[in-house]
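Onboarding guide, step 5: your first structure request.
Type a short instruction followed by the sequence, for example:

Predict the 3D structure of this protein.
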Amino acid sequence: MRRTDKALAGIAAAGVAIGVAELVAVLTGARSAPLVAVGGVVVDTVPESVKELGVKLFYTHDKLALEIGTGILLALFAAAVGVLAGRRLWYGLAGVALFGAVGVAAALTRPGATWAYPLPSVVGALAGAGVLVALFREPVWNDDPGERRRFLGYAGGALALAAVAGVGGRWLAARRGVSAARAAVTLPQPASPAPALPAEADAHLPGLASFVTTAKDFYLIDTSLVVPQVDPQTWRLKIHGRVRKPLTLTYQQLLARPMIERYITLACVSNEVGGGLISNARWLGVPLADLLDEVEPDDGADQVIGRSVDGFTVGTPTAVLRDGRDAMLAVGMNGAPLPLRHGFPVRVVVPGLYGYVSATKWLAELELSTFGDFDAYWVRRGWAAQAPIKTQSRIDTPQNGANPARGTVMVAGVAWAQHRGVSTVEVRVDGGDWRKATLGAVPSIDTWRQWTYAWDATPGKHEIQVRATDNGGAVQPQGQAPPFPDGATGWHTIGVEVS
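The system replies with structure tokens like these:
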């Protein structure tokens, strides 16, 4: 048997193992599937510099890149298992057993793991071992072309079975999800509706980000490799810890409370200068301050820990949630129930803080604690414990490297300083004088702000820069700094060549 055939046998066995595991995970939960469980361990343990590189290279597709990368490494391992099995079958079976053991160990580390979490890895490994034994049966060891064609047919059939099982498992998992339950939700009317948007809020220029971001285009950054499926009928929110009156709420009880509706811009701390990890939406939810007043936190409880159903944690200053800003437990986004990938049924929205210290998706628990007693997920990895959003501005059009025609060129973008507001945006060309841009209207200080500047463009290469000033008079800093540990700084700069 050729070495490539042995490697193919190993890959076929591993493929069947993964595919069967995906089918079993339909019953035990998507996070128990080996690829997802192992990927989750990688996300939790990989060095921070590697995570930042992943976001920089793959942007919001970093988790997909992780799954693909894991699959490639698994294929290489499986090929080696096949080659070893060609020497001694039990070598290959030991490799399959190791694969199953890694899946079991990873699944058991997942938050909320049950006794059933190891089952996909165990059943998948048994199926893979069966395929390996079948492909290395005695007749295929001779060099007869007919025997080899039969072997290749069996291996190809095993790979086809693996693909059907894997895709079918993901499809069945989606069918068993909570999309229907979400579609059945009727959101209440807000007791305090969002202010009407001024006509001047959106300039409607090609290439300029819309004032309101659709749910489809809203940026996505989280640590969950699969979207948690949370049934609103069984969802419970527990508010406890250093409080005098612990509280547990059902989804219907939350919906029955007075709601506020606000336009609020959210931003990720990983956003580079000029980046797109920022979006604006209209949120509907219950004021967090009211709930905190109801549970009566202890005087020393300076941190509210938000826990997601997948175990992710966020730590938010208690004082910020009670200082009058429109922090909320959001149930709606742009007039509809929260999309599944944006935290359905309930998430936290806090104006003015980066998401990693405020925006818990798929919320299950709020615990009153202290910053001295607990470090949340990203704080343990070196990020700042408290992270107000920094003043930033971005050029959306023209794009870097564009070739506009001479004459009037509309330079436009967005600026933000959530919960402080933007008072001025200035543009300069080729290091010349700063010129004030025209600002769009905004409904509050908690949203980004569009700006436009009519530039009389002359032929040649030019450099365009932008900076913003907040309502307190603080100018956006020029010094370039990376996102780590508390947000990027610097002036967004682009180059164009006018024809």
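Each response can be followed by summary notes, for example: Residues 3-175 form one domain.
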